[in-house]
Amino acid sequence: MNHIATLLLLFAWSLVSINSIAQTTVIGKWKSIDDKTGEAKSIVEIFEKGSVIHGKIIEVFPKGNIIDPICIKCPKDDIRYNKKILGMEIIKDLKPKGAEFSGGEILDPEVGKVYSCKLWIEGDQLKVRGYLGPFFRTQTWERVPL
Question: Per DSSP, which regions of the chain are E strands?
Answer without folding.
Answer: 28-33, 40-49, 52-60, 89-97, 100-108, 113-122, 125-132, 135-143
